[in-house]
Write a structure and sequence with these properties.
heterodimer; A: alpha+beta; Aldehyde Oxidoreductase, domain 3; 4-stranded mixed beta sheet; B: alpha+beta; Ubiquitin-like (UB roll); 5-stranded mixed beta sheet; 2 helices; globular
Chain lengths: 148, 79
């Protein structure tokens, strides 16, 4: 199940929910907030989502992964709101009979989530500037707008 | 004329200076609606933007119906 939360991700609880006696493998991915991006020092991040479509698209990705790979259970949770350096922004967990499929499914889910789910992040930099990631053209236009 | 409800996120929410609005418009398609809003709010060119109608991904040429809820989606950056 795909979920969005404004609270810290409860990794231990999520992991327990993926336990399955048919499974010999559990693989997870944590995405952490990093202190730099594209040569700039990052202070904190803000994540914003289009909740209705994000949950729908996230669930679709998990369903695709369950179809493509012989795995038992998958969960993915993404944070929204203001996050500090080192916070977990996203978590993916997969349980499966064997490790190979679990790694493959986990990789598929995080790659597709980053590509398709309508979630945006705004970086706040040490130098006081800020910007929406992956939207350089819009950010540039916005910057000009601010100073016009 | 029809009434279209628009929700804004991320860069577009900041540029429009609002999270949503309802508009009475002649715009026939999602693309025409974006152009109308672009003129009103000074949005940047929608490079790699997507569009959703009633919480489903759609296409720019989609014909708008009275009461539709439209969201323009700037490049996403989850993770």
């Amino acid at each position: 199940m795909f979920d969005l939360t404004e609270d810290p991700i409860s990794i231990a609880t999520l992991t327990e929910q993926l336990r399955d006696e048919t499974c010999g493998a559990f693989v997870s991915f944590d995405g952490w907030v990093r202190n730099h991006n594209e040569g700039q020092q990052v202070l904190r991040l803000e994540y914003e989502s289009y909740q209705a479509l994000a949950v729908k698209e996230g669930d679709k990705i998990l369903a695709e992964a369950l179809q493509r790979f012989p795995v038992a259970r998958i969960a993915c949770v993404h944070r929204t709101g203001s996050l500090e350096i080192g916070d977990a922004a996203v978590w993916v967990g997969v349980s499966a009979a064997h490790r190979g499929e679990a790694f493959d499914a986990c990789r598929y889910v995080i790659d597709e989530v980053k590509l398709r789910v309508p979630i945006w992040k705004k970086e706040h930099y040490v130098d006081g500037d800020s910007g929406w990631v992956n939207c350089e053209a819009c950010a540039a236009a916005n910057h000009n707008h601010d100073h016009s | 004329m029809k009434t279209i409800h628009i929700e804004y996120f991320a860069i577009l929410r900041e540029q429009a200076d609002r999270a949503s609005e309802s508009l009475i418009t002649d715009a026939a398609t999602a693309e025409a609606l974006f152009q109308e809003l672009q003129a009103a709010h000074g949005f940047a060119a929608p490079r790699n933007f997507k569009v959703a109608i009633n919480d489903e991904f759609s296409v720019w040429a989609a014909e708008l119906q009275d009461g539709d809820r439209v969201v323009f989606i700037p490049p996403v950056a989850g993770g």
